[in-house]
Amino acid sequence: MAKRPAQRRWARMIAAAAACTSLSAALACQQPRVASQPAVGQPAKGTASQPDAAAPALDEVVDRILTRRETRDVTDLKAKVVWETGTIQEADDPLRKFGQILYRAQDPIPQFKVHFTSKIVDRNKKATIDEQHFFDGEMYVELNAETKTVTYREIRGPNDKRNPYKVGEGAFPLPFGQKKQDILREYEVTRVAESLKDPPKTDHLKLTPRKGSQSEARQKSVEFWVVREDGEPAGLPVRVRVVERPVAAGEENFIVVTFSDVELNTGLGVSPFSINAPDEYQTFFEPLGGELKEGKPPAGKTRKPNPVP
């Protein structure tokens, strides 16, 4: 039997970041989590959801930030990204990867692609890599040039009504467009005092999973830094930090994703949204609800992006 490729964490970051805001499409380096409950649609553009009547009163600034994120209109996005992960116990020596993230709204499900092109090794040496992650709305594809593998995982069927980007439920919760009431249902949200280490002109929020929520089993906390109301990226996160529940004693992991040079709503075309693997790469496929095995997806399982409407 073919050996299963090493698991990546990028998808989990996407989920964590999405739980709080709505772009990252947070970023992937582990097997994505498939939604287990029916999802509702995204909120109408420019319309904020009404908070749960039973929820406690929110800090005014927190309320404004969450409302701004919910109503932010993002049809496409392009940004540089730095992805870091490590253990709390060895926080001064994280694994760092550098690349680009692309996001594009389309009917019925948006797409994203992350391409890492370099990483830091031996603490301060930069090495070239080619690691790509792509979700076409149904299939999650990962290319790793170091292992010469391409892995296809079916996340949703073509007629599946669930939303893979919904916070607390989907495989890739987005950091923009999330309903405020969905965020507050999953997390207790508090404001963190400003620090000299914060990205410029940002608000810092901390999200603590509520007891009994789906996020509680996976995360200890989520923090994100959101651009204030004075520029094109206003209302979007430029940094997300997640502390995960420890899998083993003394191994508390963290993930930090930082975005820069954000370009919004530029009419991003379909051509960047694909992965072309060399013929000699080993291919794996995991059908929805099935096991990962060596081989390619059946014909018709992967699809091309739709043109922008």
Overview of this protein structure:
It contains three helices and 13 strands, in the order ααββββββαβββββββ. With 309 residues, it is mainly beta. Strands 7-8-9-10-11-1-2-3-4-5-6-12-13 form a 13-stranded mixed sheet. Mean pLDDT is 79; it is low at 1-31 and 33-51.
Q: Output the structural class.
A: mainly beta
Spell out the CATH superfamily. Answer: Lipoprotein localisation LolA/LolB/LppX
How much of the sequence lies in strands comes to: 25-35%
Order of helices and strands: HHEEEEEEHEEEEEEE
CATH topology: outer membrane lipoprotein receptor (LolB), chain A
Uncertain stretches:
1-31, 33-51
Radius of gyration computed on alpha carbons: 19 Å
Number of beta-strand segments: 13
Shape, per Cα inertia axes = globular
Q: Separation of termini?
A: 44 Å
Q: Count of DSSP helices?
A: 3
Provide the residue-averaged pLDDT. 79
Largest sheet strand order: 7-8-9-10-11-1-2-3-4-5-6-12-13
Residue share in helix: under 10%
Overall CATH class: Mainly Beta
Largest sheet: 13 strands, mixed
